[in-house]
């Protein structure tokens, strides 16, 4: 029953600190990544994604983004390796994006923004009993972030963009079985990693971020379908297109960004 927040003038990222003071905390996300200042760590193992038995369940519009949820009552789809001590269970993925002709990624690279950013959210079910418990713990979540760059259309993203009409309004949900997000990965799993937070309220500082350096390419037409989603519920008067649902980069506050590559 958290306080109402959004991405508008009055309720957007610059106002969140009023209801969520941790917005001005020491390990907030996203950040601007400066590759030249990242520390190459040769001891970082490669990221390992075991998604072959993943079970997607639903696609839904939560009024902030479009979310695909997974069955997470066992270790059927996990991420491990990289900076992670344990295996983390895939819970959901969602996107952040901009408006027409403007970018909407959350992390930036040397100040460069991308058209969108995909977040694959995982939780540490080794140390915590529930997702909620993990989401409030410093090593509770691991979010794999993938940049979406404007280019040719992405053959597999169609499965998602063709389903968006079913979840146009806030509060809508639909069956979405049989989708494996491994088709959304770029060829290289080279990454940057740093300790951060959720990028939307409640902004908990519980995320180990793993940001892939290589983007995937999507077409403007495909991104246009995300912008047909609405922030508002069907019964609300005001129709508000869902776009620019991203938080801008936050102060690094002395954190080190490590790179898995030179
Ligand atoms: C509030 C919130 C929840 C979840 C699962 C994930 C995020 S994010 N954008 O940091 O990946 C935010
Ligand atoms: Zn996100």
The main pleated sheet reads as: 13 strands, mixed
Topology pattern, helix = H, strand = E = HEEEEEEEEEHEHEEEEHE
- pLDDT below 50 for ≥5 consecutive residues: which ranges? none
* Number of helical stretches of at least 4 residues: 4
Number of strands: 15
**What would the principal axes of the Cα set say about the shape?**
globular
Rg result: 17 Å
Percent in strands: 25-35%
The structural class is: mainly beta
Explain how this protein is built.
With 262 residues, the protein is mainly β. The protein has helices spanning 16-19, 131-135, 158-161, 220-226, and strands at 32-33, 39-40, 47-50, 56-61, 66-70, 78-81, 88-97, 108-109, 116-123, 141-150, 173-175, 191-196, 207-212, 216-218, 258-259. The protein is globular, with a radius of gyration of 17 Å. The structure holds 3,5-dimethylbenzenesulfonamide and zinc ion. Zinc ion is lined by residues 94, 96, 119, 199.
């Amino acid at each position: 029953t958290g306080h109402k927040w959004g991405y508008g003038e009055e309720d957007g990222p610059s106002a969140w600190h009023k209801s969520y003071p941790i917005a001005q905390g020491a390990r907030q996300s996203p950040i601007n990544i400066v590759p030249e200042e990242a520390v190459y760590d040769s001891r970082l193992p490669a990221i390992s994604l075991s998604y072959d038995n993943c079970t997607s369940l639903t696609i839904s519009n939560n009024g902030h983004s479009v979310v695909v949820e997974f069955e997470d009552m066992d270790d059927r789809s996990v991420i491990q390796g990289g900076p992670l001590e344990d295996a983390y269970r895939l819970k959901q993925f969602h996107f952040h994006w901009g408006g027409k002709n403007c970018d909407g990624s959350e992390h930036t690279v040397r100040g460069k923004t991308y058209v969108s950013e995909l977040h694959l959210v995982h939780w540490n079910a080794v140390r915590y009993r529930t997702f909620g418990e993990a989401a409030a713990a410093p090593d509770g979540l691991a979010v794999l972030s993938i940049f979406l760059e404007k280019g040719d259309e992405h053959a597999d993203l169609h499965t998602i963009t063709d389903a968006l009409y079913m979840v146009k309004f806030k509060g809508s949900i639909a069956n979405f079985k049989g989708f494996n997000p491994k088709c959304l990965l770029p060829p290289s799993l080279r990454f940057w990693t740093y300790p951060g937070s959720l990028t939307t309220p409640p902004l908990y500082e519980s995320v180990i971020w793993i940001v892939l350096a290589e983007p995937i390419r999507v077409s403007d037409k495909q991104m246009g379908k995300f912008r047909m989603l609405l922030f508002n519920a069907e019964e609300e008067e005001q129709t508000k297109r869902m776009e620019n649902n991203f938080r801008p980069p936050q102060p690094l506050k002395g954190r080190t960004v490590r790179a898995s590559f030179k």
